[in-house]
Amino acid sequence: MKKCVEALDEANGDLEEAATLLRKAGLAAASKKAGRGASEGAVAVAHGPAGAAVVEINSETDFVARNEIFQVLAARVARAALGLEVAGSAGSATVELPPAAISASTLDAADESVESAMGFAVSQLGENLVLRRACLLPTPAEGGVVASYAHNTYAPGVGLTIGAVVLKSRAANVDALRSLGEKLSMHVVAANPRFLDRQSVPEEAVGRERDILSEQAAQSGKPANVVEKMVSGRLNKYYGEVCLLEQAYVIDDSSGSVTKVLAAAGKELGADVELTGFVRYHVGEGAEASDE
User: Fold this and answer.
1) pLDDT above 70: residue 35
2) Helix axis angle, 114-125 relative to 15-33, nearest 10°?
3) Domain 202-240 CATH (choose: 1.10.286, 1.10.3470, 3.30.750, 2.60.40)
């Protein structure tokens, strides 16, 4: 309130000019706090005809993340990210969005940049805020849906963890397809897959895992051909842990793997259902990786 009164005095009672002064002061405050660590906050998801956008905005404490000002800001930034177009992303199931491009974009229909809104929020909340990462999951051109699930929510679509999946299908029952996508998104949050399928696992990761398993199996003293079979079996188990399509479906453990769930859904809906991409954002993951 004191800052508002001071801004009105400086603007000689002009409300628009006072608001401009407050926003400029917010950007200045954001600049001063920019060096302070921020690994708390929230992730937010926004949906539209184009697909879904997921963003992570970090604050210094989880106390600020529980503030309605922060939550509304996170939801608005996610909607702004949804409107971005990224060159060369056609046909991609998931597209990383540059935070700088989102910061320069406008919020909703307002003539206000994301950077300006975040700066003003810094002045309101008293903590450094960082737009750490964002991604876009486009709706498949051939038909299908993008679905998501938010866990430990502060507000609708804003929480500590968000999973989202892209389902490509020509199924006529879009509601049933979206319901399946929401359950698969819940699975993504719970099972935390690292890759979509075996082909997505980098060769370095497979080689490293094979070396470890080979060394462990060799200590058994069994013949080389038996050791090779042991390594192959344990690699299959590794794929079943890290690859989404090979994971056991945690929502219904009697359904088998995620691949089997998709096959069963395809028969029920009368059209093939293919899971082509997914993301899982959890607050602080980026900050922890950066520190390490």
Assistant:
1) no
2) 80
3) 1.10.286
